[in-house]
Amino acid sequence: MWYHLEVIREQIHAVLENGRSGRQEDQEELAKIAREIEARRNGVYVMNDEERAAVREGLEQARRGEFVSDEEMDTFWAKIDEALSRSAEDVRQGKFATHDQVKAIFGRYRLKRG
Q: Which of 13, 38, 70, 90 could form a disulfide with 95 if both were Cys (CB 3.0 to 4.6 A apart)?
């Protein structure tokens, strides 16, 4: 048991060291994962500034009555279902979507106001 815990500690240390010198996107993702773990422990999720701003913008859009149509949402969810189905098949075949590919799928269906 002690050996197992020591190996895990070393792995965590290595991930954190790599994260410090890695790309900004990777650092942000690592921070988000750490916040999610902390939220599970405490039952409270603390949003970062970007998430807080996105929630505020969404609430403002709702107050102004700005919603996407049911058809747009149906299209969005169909694309998500398609992506998840492809991803499940890719996992079975040993292939995986890249982070950029997943971001592109979600980015295409993000409500854009300008």
A: 90
Given a cut of 70, is residue 108 above it in pLDDT?
no
The pLDDT confidence band at residue 10, using thresholds 50, 70 and 90, is confident
CA 82 to chain centre: 18
**In the block, residue with structure tokens 């292939």:** 95
Cα torsion for 12, 17, 21, 23, to the nearest 10°?
Answer: 0
Instruction: Kindly state the helix (H) or strand (E) to which residue 94 belongs, with its residue range.
Output: none
Is the Cα dihedral 78, 81, 84, 90 positive or negative? negative
The residue type of 7 is V
Whole-angstrom Cα distance, residue 27 to residue 11?
A: 16
